[in-house]
Amino acid sequence: MTDTLVRPAPEQPKIVDNRAKLWPRVVVAVLAAPVIFGAFAAAKGVDPLAMYADMVRSLADPAQAQTVLVRASVLVLAALAVAVPARAGLLNVGGEGQIVIGAVCAAGVGLVTDQRLPGPVVLTLMIVAAMVGGAAWAGIAAGLRLTVKVNEAITTLLMNFIAIDIMLLLIYDPWKDASGFGQPASRPLEDTARLPLFVPGGTLNTGIVVAGIALVAIWWLMSRTGWGFRLRVVGGNPEAARRAGLRVGTLLVTSMLVGGALAGLAGLVHFAGTEFKLRPGMTANFGYVGFLASWLALHRPLRVASAALLLAAIAMAGDSLQIDANLPAASVNVLMAMVLLVVLGFTRRSKK
Amino acid sequence: MIVDVLTGGVRGGTAILYAALGETIAERAGVINLGTEGSMLTGALAAYAVTAETGSPWAGVVAGAAAGGLLALVHAVMVLGRAANQLATGLVVLFLGLGLTSMFGAAYVGRAISPFQPYPVPLLADIPWLGPIFFQHDPLVYGSYLLAPAIWWLLYRSRVGLTIRGAGERGEVLTAYGHSPQLVRYLAVVTGGLLAGVGGAHLSTAYANAWFEGMTAGRGFIAVALVIFAAWHPLRAVGGAYLFGAALALSPALQARGLGFNQFALDALPYLVTIAALVLLGRRRSNAAPEGLSRVFELTPAK
Questions:
Q1: What is the CATH number of the domain that holds B177?
Q2: In a mutagenesis test of the B interface, which of A90, A147, A157, A339 is the best target, namely the one with the most B β-carbons within 10 Å?
Q3: I want to staple B48 with a disulfide (CB 3.0 to 4.6 A). Which of A166, A349, B204, B246 is the partner?
Q4: What residues 166-225 of chain B have any CB closer than 8 A to a CB of chain A?
Q5: CA A38 → CA A314, A338, B188, B223, distances in Å?
Q6: Is A174 in a helix, a strand, or coil?
Q7: How many domains is chain B partitioned into structurally?
């Protein structure tokens, strides 16, 4: 009788917490990537441990740390530009082009108005121009997707190259700075129209506030509004969404427009906060790195912030590579790619 | 002038053609690889480095193919082994290629090599117009003339091709016949990388005869777009690749004649042409897409 009483309790259904399962994998990712990159560095005759020590030390420097934050704010915006359309199931690979167009529109407005109007007015106009420009550029791809069913990943990607050519066309001729010693670049933006700095003489500008506001706004839109919910429904199952009476086309286009506007804003923050003039190569792959940051964050707005910080820190550490280890700065792309490979390879499985 | 542009089109289009032919195989098996750009880059560097060290551009091509294939293997493992998103992984693989080539390529910037020499085909090279356009090139260009029909035959007239297309359309059917669709896809992606590597090799050891960081300048992306533009057909890819090559050759040809046309407007032309072609061919394209690939794109019903 007593024997039957100590029967093991019926098995509880196992609750799998994906979040708890994710963390060990993140730790693996964080470890695996540096080990592999270290091996490559060792193959180049660089002591990996000393290299990492230099990288970390360079980030501890206040000036460098500021630069990381500056880059991260642009990256946050570039990543959100990917995350919003991704929620609706669209792939925006065109961040780079939308950033360029945003910067070009901002510069165009800035060059016309910055010597005539007060700074804050110019800045406001530039923000509007950059967002409209970025949205329009992304909107072309969304429109093609809806009307002729051309995949947006391919069109946004190709349009990046067109955007860069448009910028080059402008700065090699009509917008070229006459007093720029023949360099292909536009005239620098007047001081008054630049994004204000936090510390005079530093590099940290109010772009980080812009990025922070955008981050909270997108988080709120995505998780607290009907629009965000409908977007997720479309992304989850477009057929079901259509049958439920959602206007799938409108939702797809608006998500892409919001994404483009965010990328345009990233272009503005980079232009009016750091560069002040258009020059070849100014966008420094922000669009592509932002795309990867969004994937790293699984398109969740709040996680985007940490992903952007991580990637900005890695990119910044690349500059120390060039100085201390005599490796080209672009070498850190290997480290970044390894981190992402591990994350992409492991998070997808945990969803199954 | 027209002959110049068309000659340049064939010469400049060859690298894109190799990559596009390789990508056609991969996409027919249901895997899109944006890392093609990275495979071309690593192929270009490996070919250049090996040519510089050994003095033989042929050894360079072999090395380039191997490097391109290896990078594509990374994509294959991630996408097929770990079920990662194909487009995102492709971009990551591109970054990996960018980083690796900048890391190991710095030593070869500005180094001289003995590149491929043009080899005019006897008799054919003397035909007016067609001779210079098609038959006064380096051996890799002639190789691509043979490769395109060979891949067409492979895909449409051979058992192997049936297996590849089967893996792209309905993997389950292959399983039912005792084949492994995953294995077929692995091989297709790696083959795609090998050919992209050869394309990169053509770029560094026959076209530009130099190595510099990021020298492929989006040609790999163009190759991927071209495959879709060609509706996954290897022979149509030939025309598309030469169209791109011609657009690339147009601006130096115009400038050489002192025609003041803005260089950057012309540089944007290949991309505009692709988008325009995608738009025009939109309908046919979506029908021709391998089933497995449509699933990747998650073509939401656009209403």
A1: 1.10.3470
A2: A157
A3: B204
A4: 213, 218, 221-222, 224-225
A5: 14, 11, 31, 33
A6: coil
A7: 1
For the segment B263-288, what is each residue's pLDDT rounded down to a tens digit?
A: 777 778 878 887 887 787 765 555 56
Domain ranges, residue B154: 2-110+133-298
Confidence of residue A280 (pLDDT cuts 50, 70, 90): confident
The ipTM, to two decimals, is 0.83
Structural domain contains residue B116 = no
Asked whether residue B32 is domain-assigned, the answer is yes
Token pair, residue B176, equals: 């039912």
**DSSP conformational letter for B32:** -
pTM over cut 0.95: no
CA distance A30 to A21: 15
For chain A, give the longest Cα–Cα distance.
100
Burial of residue A20, with CB atoms counted within 10 A of its CB: 0-12 exposed, 13-18 middle, 19 or more buried: exposed
The alpha carbon of residue A181 is apart from the nearest alpha carbon of chain B, in Å, by 21
In whole angstroms, give the CA distance from residue B70 to residue B43: 10
- For residue range B218-242, list pLDDT tens digits in order: 889 889 888 887 878 899 889 888 8
Report the candidate in B167, B210, B281, B230 with the shortest Cα–Cα distance to residue B16.
B230
- Residues of chain B with C-beta less than 8 angstroms from the C-beta of A238: 300-301
> Where exactly are the structural domains of chain A?
76-286
Pair of tokens at residue B272: 């505009």
User: Is A242's CB within 8 Å of B303's CB?
Assistant: yes
